[in-house]
Amino acid sequence: MKPKVAFFDFACCEGCQLQVANFGEELLDILEVVDVVNFREVMSENGEDYDIAIIEGSITNQHAVERIKKIREKAKIVIAYGACACTGGINAMKNNFEMPEIMHYVYKDDAKYFDTIPTKAVDQVVKVDYYVHGCPVYPKEFVDVLKCVLQGVEYKVPEKSVCTECKLNENECMFDKGLTCMGPITKAGCNSWCINNGNICFGCRGFVENPAKNAAIEVLKDHGLNPELIIKKINMYNTVLDEKLKKKGEE
Amino acid sequence: MPKTVYVNVEYLTRVEGHGNIVVNVTDGNIEKCNLEIVEAPRLFEGMLRGRSIFEAQHITSRICGICSCGHTLASLQAAEDAIGFKQSAQTEKLRKLLLYQEILDSHILHIYLLAAPDLLGVKSFVPLINSHNDVVRRALRMKKECNNMCEIIAGRHVHPISTTVGGFTKLPKESELDRMRQIMERMQEDMEATVELLTTLTFPSFERDTEYVALVNDENEYPFLEGDVGSTDGVRFDKHEYKNYINEFVVPHSTAKHTKLSRDSYMVGALARYNLNHEKLNSEAKKAALKLKLEPGTKNPYLNTVAQAVESVYCIEESIKIIDELKETGVKHDEKITVGLNENKNIPVKAGRGIGAVEVPRGILFHDYEIDAEGRIINANCMIPTNQNLNNIERDMRTLVPEILEKTEEEITLFLEMLVRAYDPCISCSTHFLNVKFVK
């Protein structure tokens, strides 16, 4: 029996699901080993019996909290798929604002009709078994994780920074070009995708386990770079992780 | 005989984002006929405040995975408009090429994976793997090839990397231009087969007169990236005036904000562009339109999918033209830039307001930023194609339901689902804007 896989999306852009459709004909090979029973973006089949739940998006309202709990009860394995699910992703930028203020800015007097809570990563609500980081996910890593899931072994996210991969790719360091880059404090595993293409790392995969965040800010200040922009750059993808770190520090 | 019908489609499938179709007909009277949007609010405009315009495209591309290149291009246009930066001719070509590929990619996804299953009587492409294996393979191959193109131009399709304010952080090599041309040549064959396939499918016949809105200009090119805003009712205005012409309004019986221009509602997207600019299509696209019997002035929204096929042909041919032009002049690699957050102040910044208006797969997309002297966003507004279409979709639904009341509830549901899907709605995009109907 092929394991039954279901995709569920919460608050997100659905780009990570799209990465699956972007596999091309290789997708048919993946469909040889798993049975996709629920994938709303491209399928109307609506299977409620599944072994593996792949969760895209972050939890941003009470309805989502209840929904993810039900999915967790049914699924044997839960995979947090993409930055929004793993770390809250870009959705967590809103946590840096007062919730009523930002709601009013966007929805004016109609804000009261919306159920909204500060953005949470999936693992802040239910237990997560596997993580596929990134915004969007790196397709190769997704296949690696899927292989581990199917074999019932652990997948370890590399515990090193993007810089380690960037060096192997022989990219010129962004700091040497006078730019700030999130590479030194961001989890590896994307093969330094953005720097290979001439841009900086925005930190979408989240902090490494023990980021030297304060030291990083100091170094950047030494280079005469605007600390406000730097902090903003850090919390683009790491607001929830930052909240978790602070909590850990207090304990 | 008066009929009672209840349709309640929770989480409509094969669309981007979460929406419900709710129709209540009691004794032949339509009591409710709504497309409810249930996507969680994501508050992008609020989150953009205080952010540098040099990271705005990175953030706003995350509004939508399917049209992330479109959001990127609208964002860059708004940012560059605000600081008075003029893109180079080469940058314009590459941006256009990227947009053509995204339109192609999105249209292929919609035609094959989202719309075709209904026309072939199945629930998704999965059963088609056995019954129409060559068709599924072609669809996935075409999608993959679009991705390969975007990878060369911008690093990847979902959330492009190398597109920044000022230009590109990487540029295609000679060998990559050759590879892109080969891909597009192969795509021509697959596209021909796609048009062929569409001639064998029958779309529901339904018509409703409405206003069509898209970019228009005086150039001899079907406009996607530059132009004024025009409508089939004869309105034309500069993109900077969009707020003065496009009304967002609250319907008395609900709190939903809708948009309108000259009349009750308007449609944006492939069919709107076709109806406004069909004369400017290239000859191959015109041939495809003829073959698919897509008449200018078409009022059947189901044929939006057919207009997407015509545009796909257009995009392939125009992409080849751009690649050939780049091959002929050679890519100027000294235009490659490294910008980051403009820490080196290579790009002069000033306070101001900028508007981006770009035709993305689902229609005209506006990004509007007001920035301070440091290039930080003070106010942001994005007006999304799907948001502009929702009002039109609901009005279509209200006209359609009485016409098909004699059908079974199952058939009515399918017709309504197909109607909403024909617009290829992108609900994640539309919901940072208030567009939720509350049943009271």
Structure, described:
The complex is a heterodimer of chains A (251) and B (440). With 251 residues, chain A is of the alpha/beta class. Chain A has two domains: 4-151, NADH:ubiquinone oxidoreductase-like, 20kDa subunit (Rossmann fold); 162-250, no CATH class. Helix content of chain A is 40%, strand content 10%. Chain A has helices at residues 15-21, 26-33, 62-74, 83-87, 99-107, 139-151, 162-168, 193-196, 213-222, 227-250, and strands at 4-9, 35-39, 52-56, 77-81, 130-132. In chain A, strands 2-1-3-4-5 form a five-stranded parallel sheet. The radius of gyration of chain A is 19 Å and the shape is globular. Chain B is an alpha+beta fold. Chain B has a single domain (5-430), classed as Orthogonal Bundle (Cytochrome-c3 Hydrogenase, chain B), CATH 1.10.645. Chain B is built from 14 helices and 14 strands. Chain B has helices at residues 44-48, 53-60, 68-83, 89-119, 125-131, 133-154, 174-199, 242-245, 270-277, 283-291, 304-329, 385-403, 409-422, 427-430, and strands at 5-9, 19-26, 29-37, 163-164, 167-168, 211-216, 228-231, 236-237, 247-250, 257-260, 266-267, 352-360, 363-371, 377-383. In chain B, strand 12 and strand 13 (363-371) form a beta hairpin. In chain B, helix 9 crosses helix 11. The radius of gyration of chain B is 21 Å and the shape is globular. Residues 251-256 and 431-440 of chain B have low confidence and may be disordered. Chains A and B meet through helix 1, helix 2, helix 5, helix 8 and helix 10 of A and helix 1, helix 2, helix 4, helix 5 and helix 6 of B.
